[in-house]
Design a protein that fits this description.
The structure is a single chain. This protein is mainly alpha-helical. It has a single domain, classed as Orthogonal Bundle (Multidrug-efflux Transporter Regulator, Chain: A, Domain 2). Helix content is 68%, strand content 9%.
Length: 95
């Protein structure tokens, strides 16, 4: 059994994650974050380690998404540059 100080109530956990209580409640209901329910008072309880793992996973996904978006942006810029150069070339050869 875990110690009581390893758990956070929903408001504390939301503050820990930097989101609203409603957002955290939805994430927990959707199964994105593990949650325990205290049977005596029906409080939602969150294990600090679970919240830390969730934050780390979010950071990794954000970093990966950022890398993909930056690469995709460079590719489209390069492709548009190639198209622009071919247009310029055909314009000058027609003159």
């Amino acid at each position: 059994m875990k110690k009581l100080d390893e758990y956070l109530k929903i408001a504390e956990a939301a503050r820990f994650l930097g989101v609203s209580v409603n957002t955290l409640r939805k994430w927990a209901d959707d199964g994105r974050i593990p949650m325990r329910v205290n049977e005596a008072n029906r409080y939602r309880l969150f294990v600090v380690k679970d919240l830390e793992r969730f934050l780390e996973k979010q950071r990794n996904q954000s970093a990966e998404s950022g890398r993909r978006n930056r690469c995709a942006g460079k590719q489209s810029i390069l492709e548009s540059g190639v198209r622009d150069l071919s247009w310029t070339y055909s314009t000058f050869t027609a003159i």
